[in-house]
Amino acid sequence: MIERLVLPPWLRLGLILPLLVLNLWVLRQLLLPLAPFPALFIGAALIAFLLDIPTRWLHGRGLPRGLAVLLVVGLALGLLVLSALWLVPRLVEQLVGLINALPGWLSEGERWLNVLEEWAAERGLPTEFGDLSSSLLTRTSQVASQLSQRLLSLLGATVGLTVNTLIVTVLAVFLLLGGEAIVAGLARWLPAAWSGLLLTTLGRTFRGYFAGQVVLALILSGAQMVVFTLLGIPYGVLFAVLIGFTTLVPYASAVTILLVSLLLALEDPRTGLEVLAAAISVGQVVDQVIQPRLMGSIVGLQPAWLLVSLPLGARFGSLMGLGELLGLLLAVPVASCLKTFLDAWATQLGLPEVPGLPQGSSLKPPPE
Known about the structure:
This protein is mainly α. The chain is built from 11 helices and no strands.
């Protein structure tokens, strides 16, 4: 009888990478011909994750699950229709106005660069702003032209967008109704030692992270909209929604605030400073008061790992045919799940913890 071959740990770890790359390549070859349906399916699964939270809450208070699903889906569709009727026309109107006003703002920005160049020349400083201003004007004009073309193509592709929206909605409802049975069936194929950890981690991370991020985006968008309206900021609704929903990607809202403030400062520096101060103030209130109570430490990743995971997620999503945006949205929760699995694996292998690390530097795997 041949004894079972036992490989040393270093060799097992060395074999993981080529096998993982091979499996990912095979998965990519399967997903690319099916595009865009894998992305639509993942989007429907994320929506089902969000709708499952109020459904569980209603079901826990004695309401039958079918009726709870019906109420939650009906309320979500009603809110979506109301927001579309009130918000979408304003967003389109302000976006068109912004595209039309952008060339004038860029001309004003070029004038400020020329003034800065003259000031530097009087003091004998390097003056290379002329090329910078013309390049900036050209590049930004191209971006404005592309935005207008994208807007027109988006409005022209209403049929395809409507079909995709219907597919995602129907898939989300079916996943919401039969999600537990689907998960239980898939869990039977997993090793018994890892099924509990996998299901608990995925449920906790994805459901908690996306629910928290979406609620934070809605709160921040609403608060910014009120503040910008009171301050009389031009295109305030558009900028408020843009700043709010870029919070779905970590650190993206800070970049958006800076860009919006610089853009408005081209026309009026005071308006740009007002937007910068208002947006930072509202964002700090949401981050310091609401976010800790809403999300806690769901992700459990250090900021450096967050910054690394974002470009990797965008690139991976593009390679797999899912799109860079979906890759960005999935990057953080997937990285958090991978960290949890690696911590649990290290515990099973009996790897010692490195002395001197601060407490809480690693995320303990959740109880099964």
